[in-house]
Design goal:
It is built from six helices and four strands; from the N terminus they run H-E-H-H-E-E-H-E-H-H. It is an alpha+beta fold and about 190 residues long. It has a domain of about 120 residues: Alpha-Beta Plaits. The chain has a four-stranded antiparallel sheet with strand order 2-3-1-4, with helices on one face. Helix 3 packs across helix 4.
């Protein structure tokens, strides 16, 4: 058996690049977690309008439906449904991230540069889960709407402004007093 150095052509051993396999089904609904590189930052909520602009621009170019979303200071969760003939959510996330980064730069926000010329704003990867059925969708939407309470930003879901929870209340899906820290007992998100 060859050594790691021999397999890599000599020199220092570099672990092979991990190639993630993502489930891509046209027309499917997906749960995403997208995170900033700096988990102490508040860039997403500090610049929520720029994030919204980026998402709307991408949505016009590469359609998708945002079924639910919550934006926290350093990460966001959402459920997207793609068109029946399309499964390319990676292109959408790449464009959203790039658009937000460009918007920040144009607004004069200082960003940490990387040696490759990019910016150290986003984590390079994101979490994706293909939603399997209506119960899975409902569980993840509950998780999204409860997330600001879970992280201690508010004690009631209704008090977090950057959430589709308010739209769900208007539609009659949730009562306004749903998602109070002391009252929630349930399995949200991934089992």
């Amino acid at each position: 058996m060859q050594s790691g150095a021999a397999l890599c052509g000599g020199g220092r051993y570099d672990a092979p690049m991990v190639h993630y396999r993502r489930n891509r089904l046209p027309g499917a609904s997906y749960f995403f977690t997208v995170t900033l590189a700096d988990r102490q930052a508040s860039t997403l909520t500090d610049h929520i309008a720029l994030l919204g602009d980026s998402m709307r621009t991408v949505q016009q170019q590469l359609p998708f439906t945002t079924d639910a979303i919550v934006v926290l200071p350093e990460h966001l969760h959402c459920v997207w449904t793609l068109p029946e003939t399309d499964s390319d959510y990676p292109a959408r996330w790449k464009a959203v991230k790039a658009g937000f980064t460009k918007g920040l730069r144009l607004a004069g926000v200082a960003l940490q540069s990387r040696p490759d010329g990019g910016f150290d704003l986003w984590q390079r990867r994101y979490w994706e889960h293909t939603l399997r059925d209506e119960a899975d969708v409902a569980r993840h939407i509950d998780y999204i709407h409860y997330n600001p309470v879970k992280h201690g930003w508010v004690t009631r879901a209704v008090d977090w402004p950057h959430s589709s929870f308010h739209r769900y209340v208007r539609m009659g899906v949730y009562p306004e007093d749903w998602g109070i820290a002391a009252d929630i007992d349930g399995a949200f998100g991934e089992p």
